[in-house]
Amino acid sequence: MLDKEFGEISISIRSNMKRITARWRNDRLVVNMPPFVPLNSIASFINENRDTLRALRNKALEKARCSVSYELEQRIPCFKGEVHITSIEYKPNFTGYKRDKDGNMFIFISSRDDISTSTKQNAISSALKALMKRTAPHVLIPYAWEIAKEIGVSPKEIVIGRGAKKLGHCTSKGVIQLSFMLMFMPEELVRYIICHELAHLTVMNHSPQFHALCNTYCNGKEKALEQMLKGFRYPLLER
Ligand SMILES: [Zn+2]
What is the whole-number distance in angstroms between the Cα of residue 206 and the centre of ligand 1? Predict the structure, then answer.
């Protein structure tokens, strides 16, 4: 079936369905309908729901534009480096990762495996996370100490926290915890998050005094960096 706005439409008959439904799949409208429904009722269904279907299509297209996907020989920028997705000799279903002694990072996928499958894409996303978890202590902690020294504050300890949701935390004992997820960010955001936590060594809450201090640590760019962090997207399929 062909619609003048939506193009070719796929129709599938579902014996378990009681009414017509529709959804977008790869920019193709798929209509599911119960058996014994006259075909012209699909056209009326589409006309009655045209505005909704159009909105759903735009949403799906927008999502596809923003969503992450990986390909062979891609280089994913991260804090102080990049991750190179490359292939190795055939090992069925293999996805591995490595950080060499010079700090070069790799995700390996087996040659002959299809990188575009969702299983492979998910495996790469997980491998990226594992790689950053492993790398964070070597890279983030020394960097955070540098910033602390530059600002002139002395945290009790700087550690990599376990979580992915909380990017940073300052305990009442003065221990700074940073998430390995910072490894996916550009340096200015990493620095901003560290400055935020270091400011908590002096002011525990988020009062105007806190922000004034944090803003000084950030060379007057706290607001701009906060906005930049809000717009940041991880190169991951899910957090
Ligand atoms: Zn805070």
Answer: 6
Q: Which domains does the chain have, with CATH numbers?
A: 2-66 (no CATH), 75-230 (3.30.2010.10)
How many whole angstroms from 76 Cα to the centroid of ligand 1?
A: 29
What are the C-alpha distances in Å from 25 to residues 17, 30, 60? 19, 7, 8
pTM summary value: 0.74
Cα of 184 from ligand 1 centre, angstroms: 20
Amino acid at 58: N
Helices (H), ranges, the chain = 40-48, 50-66, 118-151, 187-199, 208-217, 222-230
Could you read off the pLDDT of 134-181 as tens digits, one per residue?
A: 999 999 999 999 999 999 999 999 999 888 889 999 999 999 999 999
